[in-house]
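User: I'm preparing a small set of examples for a lab meeting where we compare how different chains pack in three dimensions. I only have the primary sequence for this one, and I'd like the structure in token form so I can line it up with the others. Please keep the answer compact; I'll paste it straight into my notes.
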Amino acid sequence: MLKAVHYRWFVANIDERQTAAQLFNHCWDLLEASPRTADQDADLLGSAFTSRHLFQAVGGPAQWITGDWMIARAAGAVGYGDLAVAYALRAFEAAQAPDTEDWLVASAAEGVARAYGDANDDTHRDEWVARAQSLVSEIADPENRDLIASQLAEVAR
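Assistant: Understood. Below is the structure token output for the 157-residue chain.
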């Protein structure tokens, strides 16, 4: 009986991980859709929150940070700048843990810069762009550095 309970928990975790990852990827598809309908905007925000919720149960700190980052990205994209800032700052704060990978810290800073831009706060956006640029320059892996730098370059100035 005990083994069956553990097996169900393991299978449920696999399903939740797959669903969380699929929803995260669905967010990217919706972010790239242009133009998006109001229903797609609602789907984008709901998918970001649901992915983050599932990763809360079956992920670790990297998934939680990335989930908060995606909520910020989605919220900003659909016009909720204040919500975007709140989740981006949450992601960046969590990324300050000592074992967080360099690219994820820089990505979280990029998210804060983008969120402030989405909230029409140019002063804070520019401060965070500079901070993120500094963190991007410290990323050891060139591929990760290029990816985060390209995302940072998209932040409206």
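A couple of notes for your slides: The mean pLDDT is 92. Residues 4 and 10 are 10 Å apart (CA to CA).

User: Perfect, thanks.
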